[in-house]
Amino acid sequence: MIISASRRTDIPRYYAEWFIHRVRAGYCRVPNPFNPKRASRVDLRPEAVDAFVFWTRYPKLLMPFLAELERSEFKFYFQYTITNYPGQYEPGAAPLQQVIDCFKALAQQLGPRRVIWRYDPILFSDDCTLAFHQKNFEFLCAQLCGSTRKVVISFLDEYRKTLLRMRTAKIPYQGDALLHHGLAPLLQHIMAVAESNQMNVASCAEPEVVQSYGISTDRCIDDRLLKSEFGLNLNYQKDPGQRPLCGCMRSRDIGVNNTCAAGCLYCYATHNPEEARIRCRHHDVNAESLV
C-alpha cells in the first residue's frame, strides 16, 4: 500500500510531529471525507507500507525525522510545490529563500530524483501574466537546477469555491488558462527553460492540448519512480478516486480536508481558511487521527 501524505493538507509542514507519532504507533485513523464521524484504521507498519509520497510546500519540520524513516526501511519521495506567486494568492507561504534552501537540503539528503518540483496550479490574472510566469519560472528553475530532475505543471481547476474566494479577494482572474492566448508561448518557454536546467517537464491531469507541446503525462503517485529508485515492482492500478485524467497509482491518503493553514486562494482541499487555521492550531499531536 502506498500512503499519500497528503493531497488534502500539508502534513510535512504542519503535522510532522503527529505523523511521526503515528508511524511509531504503527497506525493512524482517517475520517471519511463524506462522514467525519466514521474513521478507518490505516496500517503504517513498515511491512504494510510500500512507500510514502509526501506533498508539501515547506517540509522543514519533517526533515529531522527522515533518517528515522530510512532506518525503519520506509521508502519515500516528495512532491514539493514552489510557485512564488504574489502574496495575496498564497498568504501563508513561507519566505521564498527558506523554501528554496529547504528544497536544496532535501535533495542533497535524498537525491534529486526523489524531490519533484511542482509549479502548479498555473493561472492567468492581471498580476500573474504571461510575462510574470516566464520570468518567475526561469528564476525558480535557475535556483533549483541540480536539485531536481522533474518539474510538474498543472492549470487551475475552476472549482466554485476557488472562484468565489478569488472574487471575494478581488483577484483579477482572466479565466481558463487552457483557453488563454498565453498558453502556447508559456508552455514553449517552460519546455525550453526546464531543458536548459536539466529538468524534464510533466503535466498533472491535463488534456491532450498540453501534451501536444511535448509535455508528458505524469503519475504523481508513481510506481515507475518507486521501481527505478527502490526496486519496487508494483502492479499498476489507476486510482479510481482521482480525476479521469489523473494517472496516479492507487494510494491511501491519510490527510483531512480543511486543515491546511497556508490559506492559498486556489486550494481545492480547503473550504474555510480560517477554520483550517484553527483546526491546525489546536490539533493534538498524540491523537490517532489528524483532527
Describe it for me?
Helix 8 (208-211) links the parallel strand 8 (200-203) and strand 9 (216-217). Strands 9-8-7-6-5-4-1-10 form an 8-stranded parallel beta sheet. A two-stranded antiparallel sheet has the order 2-3. The chain is globular. It has one domain. By secondary structure, it is of the alpha/beta class. Helix 5 (130-144) runs parallel beside helix 7 (183-196). The protein has helices spanning 11-14, 16-25, 66-71, 96-110, 130-144, 160-168, 183-196, 208-211, 223-230, 273-281; strands at residues 2-5, 27-32, 35-43, 51-56, 76-81, 115-122, 150-155, 200-203, 216-217, 252-253.
Principal-axis shape equals globular
Q: Ranges with pLDDT <50 over ≥5 residues?
A: none
Strand content: 15-25%
Q: Secondary-structure element sequence? A: EHHEEEHEHEHEHHEHEHEH
Mean pLDDT: 96
Helix content, binned percent:
25-40%
Largest sheet properties: 8 strands, parallel
Classification by helices and strands:
alpha/beta
Write down the domain tally: 1
Instruction: Give the strand order of the largest sheet, numbering strands 1, 2, ... along the chain.
Output: 9-8-7-6-5-4-1-10
By DSSP (H or I, 4+ residues per run), the number of helices equals: 10
Rg (C-alpha, Å): 18 Å
The first-to-last residue Cα distance is: 23 Å
Number of strands: 10
Topology:
Blueprint: E1 2-5, H1 11-14, H2 16-25, E2 27-32, E3 35-43, E4 51-56, H3 66-71, E5 76-81, H4 96-110, E6 115-122, H5 130-144, E7 150-155, H6 160-168, H7 183-196, E8 200-203, H8 208-211, E9 216-217, H9 223-230, E10 252-253, H10 273-281
Parallel strand pairs: 1-4, 1-10, 4-5, 5-6, 6-7, 7-8, 8-9
Antiparallel strand pairs: 2-3
Helix pairs in contact: 5-7
